[in-house]
Specification:
By secondary structure, the chain is α/β, with parallel strands linked by helices. The protein contains 10 helices and 10 strands. The two termini are about 15 Å apart.
């Protein structure tokens, strides 16, 4: 436990586009493709909001998106994976290649962190060691040409695995699996409606490999139908009060208020108005000197510094 950890806000984003769906049944894959037709417009709007408010955050990027084109990956260890890779380029299949989005992030005045969300969204809890090594090696080699050093890892579908290999590739931070709430769904929905027992600060910890795991406080996307109904029903401020209670607890107790989302859900599952309300609250507390805004790797560095001080 890091009792001396100040109050911190952290936003992590899973940028995967259509690659995050390539292993799912055809009906789901094709439906998702249609839903993502205007995804770049929504992601650019999200970036603009973050820049306007100077919100540094961690973008966990599926590194296949760094490619402008490819001929497939015949050296991939698992021949049953990546079967939907279009083997074309960004003009033909802009949901599989996105160097334009990467350039936009790197050109920003805000100190965005580019982290890793795997190379092809392989599920680390299910794959063999050689496949995990390929995913990490390809990611490292692709970003090197962009002048990026990967320090933070976000597990695809939040399923952990192969942490030893992560440490060997010199990652310093990762987001572990989603926190499990054992309350019945109806009770969780009532908590949301009444803005009680909301998400609170988490405590980062150093794992057995020397990396810092930073659990999530909450996902900003609807977690259930009840969640969606309460967020969209009058008086339509339940989700805002829920977030506000979490931030208030973080400011008073210390720790990390770690929220995450998929950028492609901005303006869809994540209301633009609710997101801006949250960001305005974060900026208010930052301006008052009660809250810091840090990326995952910055939090990891701070946690390791505290640990070194404790050992002196």
């Amino acid at each position: 436990m890091f009792k001396n950890l100040e109050s911190i806000f952290c936003l992590s984003l899973d940028l995967e586009l259509l690659i995050g769906w390539h292993d799912l049944p055809n009906s789901i894959y094709e439906n998702r493709k249609k839903e993502l037709e205007n995804v770049r417009d929504r992601i650019y709007k999200l970036i603009n909001v973050l820049e306007k408010n100077k919100i540094r955050c961690t973008w966990g990027v599926t590194s296949h998106l760094f490619l402008e084109k490819c001929d497939g990956h015949d050296d991939y260890p698992n021949k049953e994976w990546l079967l939907r890779d279009p083997r074309t380029g960004v003009k033909e299949n802009p949901l599989w290649y996105a160097p334009d989005l990467i350039n936009r992030l790197l050109q920003s005045d805000v100190d965005f962190e580019i982290g890793c969300h795997g190379f092809s969204h392989a599920i680390f809890s299910d794959i063999e060691e050689n496949q995990a090594g390929y995913e990490l090696r390809m990611s490292r080699d692709l970003v090197k040409d962009w002048g990026i050093e990967l320090k933070s890892f976000i597990f695809p579908r939040n399923k952990e695995g192969h942490k030893k290999i992560l440490a060997e590739f010199r990652y310093t931070a990762y987001r572990p699996r989603i926190r499990i709430d054992y309350k019945p769904k109806i009770i969780r929905a009532l908590d949301l409606l009444l803005a009680r027992g909301g998400p609170g600060p988490v405590v980062p910890m150093i794992d057995e490999y020397g990396m810092v795991k930073i659990p999530p406080s909450i996902c900003l996307e609807y977690e259930s139908l009840l969640h969606k109904i309460f967020c969209k029903s009058p008086p339509r401020d339940t989700f805002r009060r829920y977030m506000e209670s979490g931030l208030e607890r973080t400011v008073s107790q210390g720790g990390v208020f770690h929220v995450w989302m998929h950028p492609c859900e901005y303006g869809k599952c994540v209301s633009q108005n609710d997101f801006e309300y949250l960001i305005n609250l974060v900026k208010k507390y930052e301006t008052e000197g009660k809250l810091r805004i840090l990326t995952m790797s910055q939090i990891a560095q701070k946690v390791c510094e505290i640990e070194k001080q404790k050992q002196k």
